[in-house]
Amino acid sequence: MSATAMAQVEITHAVGLHARPSVKFTKLAKTFTANIELALAAEGPWIDAKSIVKVMAARAPMGTVLHLRASGEGAESAVTALVALVERDFDEAAEGEAHVRTA
């Protein structure tokens, strides 16, 4: 039986899942062999979390709850890592604060 994992995480990044955050998200997803999908609602539609085009097209703004699911080898690790990335504001919190101060 294949391993599966699911999680939900709210986007708190000011620009949401836009260009840079989407690149970071998909780049991290691609480091795992598990099949990883995301959706903006629990019922879907589900998209490939490793596709930059599909992730950017989701246009998930700040406050959106991302629903993640993964199956296969490393599924739990993949979901855990992606949730952590979103919770860390895609590692851009310091950049965002500096940008706000200079704007």
From TrEMBL:
SUPFAM superfamilies: HPr-like (SSF55594). Keywords: Sugar transport, Transport. The keyword Transport applies. Residues 4-93 form the HPr domain. InterPro entries: HPr (IPR050399), HPr-like (IPR000032), HPr-like_sf (IPR035895), PTS_HPr_His_P_site (IPR001020). It comes from the Bacteria. Gene3D superfamilies: HPr-like. General (non sugar-specific) component of the phosphoenolpyruvate-dependent sugar phosphotransferase system (sugar PTS). This major carbohydrate active-transport system catalyzes the phosphorylation of incoming sugar substrates concomitantly with their translocation across the cell membrane. The phosphoryl group from phosphoenolpyruvate (PEP) is transferred to the phosphoryl carrier protein HPr by enzyme I. Phospho-HPr then transfers it to the PTS EIIA domain. PANTHER family: PHOSPHOCARRIER PROTEIN HPR. This is Phosphocarrier protein HPr. It comes from Neomesorhizobium albiziae. The lineage of its organism: Bacteria, Pseudomonadati, Pseudomonadota, Alphaproteobacteria, Hyphomicrobiales.
